[in-house]
Design a protein that fits this description.
Length: 330
């Protein structure tokens, strides 16, 4: 099976992996995945062998042809993956490409997109294989060595906390720092910030904003005003599996359109998702878990991309700047 090009796509493919292995007899399941994301399948009991994808189609082909596969399942939409399946010369089942419909939506605002989650589209592409979706949702298996004990967190976060994943692949997928601070204030609970080393500076800015008042001796007054936001900036302090473990123990997750949507879905967490330049119709939203959508549907230029930009092409960034933080978190 050829998995998608992102970490989220690999996790979204886990119901297919489970269905193939459980519902088909005597199946030896091999996965071709990007080297950067293949680790998410290391502990998956339904996978027999993992192959690391190479940038060269021919290198991938030379390694895979030795396996003499009887069936190839292609869950990628790019031409390179399609060419690779042709070279392997096996019976092929594939995810139908959505790229033309995405182009129409982005550039002409003509909506021909199917109102289906990516997981459902995957199953539709494999409808000639005798498998069907179950009710178990996504899978994510954390190695024992990466399970984070609550004792690893600062004292105020060991009982209950909310996770805010501040990482995104492009700036137009995430709030400005001032709006992140506004959202944290609205959450009004202990918050663990998760992200990469590149997000650590942003996390530190948010942390200082909320911690400086307490350091100045105003903590009692803040409590009287029911201001209970405190921040632990964990950006860059954990590897990805450890961050997944932190997510698994959280009471709720706030996140942008990123890989944490799939991780939080796998653990059946309540998700509050913020969408900027992308939209839910692209199909990568929370799967089989409770979620709240926070977005600005009144921006006519949205979506402006299926991926994102370093800054708003129009200059106003209304898709994120005008989101109303209307949610209930008990």
């Amino acid at each position: 099976m050829i998995c998608g090009p992102s970490l989220a796509d690999v996790v979204f493919a886990t119901p297919i992996i489970r269905a193939l292995k459980v519902q088909l007899d005597e199946l030896e399941l091999h996965i071709l995945a990007d080297l950067r994301f293949a680790f998410t399948l290391d502990e998956n009991p339904y996978v027999d062998n993992i192959h690391f994808s190479n940038a060269s189609i021919w290198n991938n082909y030379r390694r895979l042809k030795r396996e003499k596969f009887g069936i190839v399942v292609n869950l990628r939409e790019d031409l390179n993956a399609k060419f690779l399946t042709l070279l392997l010369n096996a019976k092929t089942y594939a995810l139908k490409s959505n790229r033309w419909k995405q182009w129409l939506m982005i550039n002409l605002k003509i909506d021909k997109l199917p109102n289906h989650h990516l997981v459902h589209r995957m199953f539709e592409g494999l409808n000639k294989i005798p498998i069907k979706p179950d009710e178990l949702g996504l899978d994510y298996f954390i190695p024992d060595k990466d399970k984070v004990a609550k004792e690893w967190l600062p004292q105020p976060f060991r009982e209950a906390y909310v996770v805010f994943c501040i990482n995104a692949s492009h700036n137009t997928r995430k709030l400005t720092v001032s709006r992140m601070i506004e959202l944290c204030d609205k959450i009004n609970k202990p918050i663990v910030l998760l992200g990469s080393k590149q997000d650590a500076e942003t996390g530190e800015t948010i942390s200082k904003f909320f911690n400086q008042s307490a350091e100045a001796g105003y903590e009692e007054g803040l409590l009287q005003l029911n201001k209970r936001t405190i921040i632990y900036n964990a950006c860059g302090k954990f590897n990805f599996n450890q961050m997944a473990s932190v997510v698994k123990q959280a009471r709720a997750i706030f996140t942008f359109d990123n890989e944490f949507i799939s991780i939080a879905s796998a653990f059946k967490k309540e998700i509050f998702g913020l969408w900027g330049n992308t939209i839910l119709l692209f199909g990568r939203y929370p799967y089989r878990t409770k979620f709240t959508v926070l977005e600005n549907n009144k921006t006519s230029c949205r979506p402006c991309s299926a991926t994102g930009f370093s800054k708003c092409p129009k200059g106003h960034f209304n898709c994120m700047n005008q989101i109303v933080f209307d949610f209930y978190l008990p």
